[in-house]
Amino acid sequence: MRKLIVVNMMSLDGQNEGPGRNVMVMPMDGAFDTYNLEMPIRCC
Q: How confident is the model at residue 44 (pLDDT cuts 50, 70, 90)?
């Protein structure tokens, strides 16, 4: 059986989208990319 890794990004008030249901307003920078690249290595 394979492992499934799920990442859900949300703000401190529990929202996962911005005005007009726009998910691109969430702050996704280089640190977020690095975290997602390293996650499978740490989990397995």
A: low
